[in-house]
Amino acid sequence: MISGHLLSAEDLTKESALGLLATAKELAAITDGPNKKLPTLRGKSIVNLFFEDSTRTRISFESAAKRLSADVINFSAKGSSVSKGESLKDTAQTLQAIGADAVVIRHSASGAAKRLADTHWIQAAVINAGDGTHEHPTQALLDAFTIKQHLRSSENDLTGVRILIVGDILHSRVARSNVILLTKLGATVTLVAPPTLLPVGVSNWPVEISYDFDKEIANCDVVMMLRIQLERMNDSFFPSAQEYSKRYGLNSSRLRKLSKSAIVMHPGPMNRGLEISAESADDLKSVIIDQVKNGVAIRMAVLYELLGGAPIGAQR
Amino acid sequence: MGVLLSGSDIDRAIKRISHEIIEHNQGISNLVLMGIPTRGAYLAERICNFITEIEGSVGCGVLDITLHRDDLRLRPPKPILPTKLPQGGIEGKDLVLVDDVLFSGRTIRAALDAIGELGRPKSVQLAVLVDRGHRELPIRADFVGKNIPTSISESVKVNLKELDGEDLVELLK
Amino acid sequence: MIKISRAKLTDGRVVDIDIENKVITKLQTSTGKPTADAIDAGSKLLLPGLVDLHTHLREPGREDSETILTGSKAAVAGGFTAVSAMANTNPVADNAGVVEQIYRLGKEAGLIDVQPIGAVTQGLNGEKLSEMGAMADSIAKVRIFSDDGECVSDPLIMRRALEYVKIFNGIIAQHAQEPRLTVNAQMNEGIVSARIGLPGWPAVAEEAIIARDILLAEHVQSRLHICHLTTAGGVELIRWAKARGIQVTAEVTPHHLLLTDDLVENYDPIFKVNPPLRTQKDVMALREGLAEGVIDIVATDHAPHPAEDKDCEFHAGACGMLGLETALSIVVKTMVQSNLMSWADLVNRMSITPAKIAGYKSQGQDIAIGMPANLILIDQEKSWKVDKNLMKSKSKNTPFHGTELPAVVTDVFHEGEQVMKNGEILDKGTSQNE
Ligand SMILES: [Zn+2]
Fold first, then answer.
1. Considering the domain boundaries, does residue A1 fall inside one?
2. CA distances from B62 to A22, A33, C107, C240, C392 (A)
3. Chain A contacts of C197, Cβ < 8 Å?
């Protein structure tokens, strides 16, 4: 079980991560049934504090909270006092005053979730729903869940699963969280990217590095494509969308090189035709829809473990 | 501290409950069992095995009620345990819930809610090894191993071989 | 007249001195007994007042974070008798009017010498030279010019500036930061930044500018000063330049001698500073460089900020740390206690050489008869615990809050007058700007 906050995949031990996956599996089974709503978090207030637009992540957390009967307050920073210069601290203190039990925060600044958890601005449990170019731990959990579901459903962990994470590693919070979690669960991870999109210091990560997608593609069980933002082109991270797509996109010829049992993943939203071809996204190997579905179960599990009991300190 | 039920008492109680279940339901054709973790699940399995021996195969499952408890915010969070549907599901079945001790009745209320998530059985019955009284809800057991009047400050501890190494029910003051 | 008895000098002598009319009038070996009417130094160290070539005193423009008066008090508390105030005020100190205002405010505060630094370019925009000659000719007699906070990144502007200040024997103090390599940079680029996902400020962005500017200084035969050196590579470049006879000097801040980039891990902006905290390897290279004299001086880069600019997410945090009040203790801890430097070396790096670089005639002089009486007494046996709430600075953004540090400044004499006595600043009544 986890407790307190979920800020980083580093907060998870192998055991607590597997525990969350198991809980999510039970929750998925229940919510697949006739009645989608559980009474578990009745009376708890969960605030979705989104300083960055991300309808997908917000909806996922919102439906997870609602299926556990929590009250959900959506606090979108766009067009609110936040964009008028109100600080994160003031916003946090407001949420404290209205009695939030948990804050799900998405912010463009790396470390914003940790600041919220570490300072005395607010008492609530903090869940990092993506902080800058740092981490997105629930995405890693749902990715681990999806990989396990497809490739290791009866095994204990992900030992032996070979995973390629392809694309903009430098700016990707999804990649950081996944590297930490998936390697913790026994998978081997290879990052495939042009050197411009790999962080200086990546040599310290427990991964292999490759610049050559074609060389790696035949020898993997999972290929996880990352979204490439077009503005990176203007910053000369790569010369053109065409050249990027040619070297690092998942197109039909690369799709054919994948082993029979391999799966294709993408955290969304996709740039069809850039990092992933429409054909690849819709191929039978693609588990992208499962990722979205599993996201709700994982977020339910996280909310349950963080809020489904007496608050920390109030226990006997 | 006193011994309420010995190993052989427990054994006899399980056999008697099994016979009563068969009799009450006029056979096993529409019968399934679900135990409430952790000890209720083992008791359900034992009852199931005995019924299978004397009458023929019967479905047995596990029902986790954690998410339906009404005392969540009074205790530290508990991990969710797997719920296993009995073979053939529960839809339209006569479902016997099995637990070790019946006390306030709140666990059973939560179990009834949890069953609601899974489907709609024809009937739900309750079998418990020990009924210690002090009900807080209008709930009663259909099959009882032993009624044991207790004071509210006492507690009843059920030990089962599968978990605790021996079969024994004790009263702790 | 002020008398001080039993003061220990860095060469080991214990002396009695008299101060009159701003100068030391008598100096003799102590009898070992305190003299009547004298301040008894006991075994405290007597040093020339420290000189800081890099402070941000925030006035005019940000009087909510510091004023010349509160900055002067912080300086006194830290043992400084002269500070140079950087030009990135509002309005920018890029003309004679503003530098004279700063100079006058320093005189009014009356605790130490406050010497304004002039901007190299108008409005620090890096495009057009400011009227450096007018600032040099003003009553402030500005000799150091810097766009600190910004790098003079255009090589042609830098070349012209280096050439132009030769007229009045000025010096350009460069904040070495290649702007294109540090867009949106938040911390040192390396293992820690890769892990915690903050945009990196690579060492090469500092080293590239240093390399370019030492070559420019050589080419035009002018004087270059490198502000707040932070990288091992930068130390190498300065060493190379000095061996080549290039007129370059360099400074290091106390915080870069002690703190490393892993402190940023919790995203607390108290550790946000520009240039950023580097790695342990860099820290060791800086210490060696300072001990060796490749790095000439210590300068604080004292940068006060109001609480709200640090009580926020890391990206939103302001860059900079308080420095004046902890500088001496940090240098003692990192350099003297580690036996890399003697107290005499410390006096050289924190008083004599900075005064020489800046041309401050009455500062950084020997303790001898006839010399100006800018002096401090230090209890080297005592330690103190940093408390941000007890800072003389108007701001509280010290990264050392709660840290136990060696060496306590007890008494400060400026131009022959005592301005601090037993840790108490002797206020001369000008408190309207506080
Ligand atoms: Zn600077």
1. no
2. 16, 16, 85, 77, 69
3. 110-111, 131-135, 173, 176
A313 lies in a domain? no
Show the tokens assigned to C130: 């400011």
CATH (residue range C49-358): 3.20.20.140
C387 is catalytic: no
Residue pair A55/A82 in contact by the 8 Å Cβ criterion: no
- Asked if the structure places residue A94 within a domain, the reply is yes
**Domain residues for A214?**
137-292
Q: Are residues A216 and A300 in the same domain?
A: no
- Element of type H or E holding B4: strand B2-5
Rounded CA separation C343/C393 (Å) = 26
Task: Return the partners of chain B (3 or more C-beta pairs < 8 Å).
Answer: A
Tokens of A254: 């690369």
Residues of A in contact with C198 (CB under 8 A): 110-111, 132-134
Q: Which CATH class is domain C2-45+370-425?
A: mainly beta
Q: Which of C289, C291, C286 is nearest to C275 (CA)?
A: C286
| C-beta atoms surrounding C11 within 10 Å | 9
Q: C-alpha distances in angstroms, C210 versus B73, C86, C165?
A: 61, 20, 19
Question: By the 8 A CB rule, do A249 and A203 touch?
Answer: no
Catalytic one among C16, C147, C301, C379?
C301
CATH number at residue A115: 3.40.50.1370
Q: Are residues A27 and A38 in the same domain?
A: yes
Contact C413, C419 (CB under 8 A): yes
With an 8 Å Cβ cutoff, is A154 touching chain B?
A: no
CB within 8 A of B72, min separation 6: which ones? A40, A308, A309
Write out pLDDT tens, residues A129-164: 999 999 999 999 999 999 999 999 999 999 999 999
* Total domains present in chain A: 2
Chains B+C touching (3+ CB pairs under 8 Å):
no
Looking at domain B2-172, its CATH architecture is: 3-Layer(aba) Sandwich (3.40)
Q: Please give the Cα distance from C25 to C28 (Å, whole number).
A: 10
Distance between CA atoms of A61 and A181, rounded to whole angstroms? 20
CB contact under 8 A, A308 and B74: no
* Mean pLDDT, rounded, for C182-194: 97
Q: How many CB atoms lie within 10 A of CB C63?
A: 16
Q: A183 CB near a chain B CB, below 8 Å?
A: no
Q: What is the pLDDT of residues B57-79, one digit of tens each?
A: 999 999 999 888 877 666 767 77
CA atoms within 13 A on the CB side of A59: 7
Say whether C311 and A89 touch across the interface (CB within 8 A): yes
The domain limits of chain C are 2-45+370-425, 49-358
CA of C226 from ligand 1 middle (Å) equals: 10
Distance CA C364, CA C358 (A): 11
With CB atoms and an 8 Å threshold, state whether C195 touches A176: yes
Tokens matching residue A79:
């067009």
Q: Between the CA atoms of A165, A166, A169 and A173, what dihedral angle is there, to the nearest 10 degrees? A: -50
Averaged over A9-13, what is the pLDDT? Answer: 96
Which has the closest alpha carbon to B93: B126, B142, B59, B64? B59
The string of pLDDT tens digits covering residues B41-57 is 999 999 999 999 999 99
Question: Given this model, what pLDDT does residue B31 score?
Answer: 96
* Amino acid symbol at A88: L
Asked if A38 has any chain B CB less than 8 Å from its own CB, the reply is yes
A23 to B79: CB separation less than 8 angstroms, yes or no: yes
Query: Quick check: A30 and B67 CB within 8 A?
Result: yes
Distance between CA C210 and CA C239 in Å, rounded? 12
DSSP string, C355-368: HHHHT-TTSS--SS
